[in-house]
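---------- Forwarded message ----------

FYI, see the Acid stress-induced BolA-like protein IbaG/YrbA record below. Original note from H. follows.
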Amino acid sequence: MTAEELQSLIAAGLPCEHIEVSGDGRHWSALIVSPAFEGRRAIQRHQMVYATLGQRIHTDEVHALSMKTLTPAEWAAQR
């Protein structure tokens, strides 16, 4: 899997205002900015992202994914 493929999978499952994905093919890092994260705790946000990946997480196609999940307001405050 490529970074672009992983980014597309996440974007297909969540409304994303911004998304960056990098990694080596098994270990990934992602910055995901979505209004869907509003009012949710970090663990809930991560579960939402994992849900977009479905079986790819369980079959080890995506071995590890480190995430920074932000709402648009949180992202704007960090810029």
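H. also flagged this: The chain is about 45% helix and 25% strand.
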